[in-house]
Amino acid sequence: MSSAASYERGVVRGTRSCDEFGDEDGYGIPAPGVGTVVEVVASGRQHIQRDRIHKRREYARAGIAVYALVDDFDGDGSVVVLTSPDPKADTGA
Could you read off the pLDDT of 4-41 as tens digits, one per residue? Predict the structure, then answer.
């Protein structure tokens, strides 16, 4: 992700060791080491906006290949899967 954003909570599951992708501070995984992000929208207006809009933009800019958004706060509940992002495109929702 860009240096402007860092999202801390979550679970990482991979087929390879995350150690090979760790940053110099031993914190996080740089975007090239992430193939898929599955985001579960958190409750609260601020969290919903962050998860639906801001993270979507940041993951696209970082070139994350697959972004799945599980959203139980859109009325009926939904799962949206976004693929093949263009890091240079405007990804406004």
Answer: 455 555 665 655 565 666 566 666 677 777 888 888 88
pLDDT of residue 81: 94
Answer whether 50's CB lies under 8 Å from 68's CB.
no
In order, the DSSP letters of 39-80 are EEPPSSHHHHHIIIIIHHHHHHHHT-SEEEEEESSSSS-EEE
Give the C-alpha separation, 50 to 57, whole Å: 10
In sequence order, the 6+-apart residues with CB closer than 8 A to the CB of 54 are: 5
pLDDT in tens, 50-72: 888 888 888 888 888 899 999 98
Q: Which tokens is 88 given? A: 């240079």
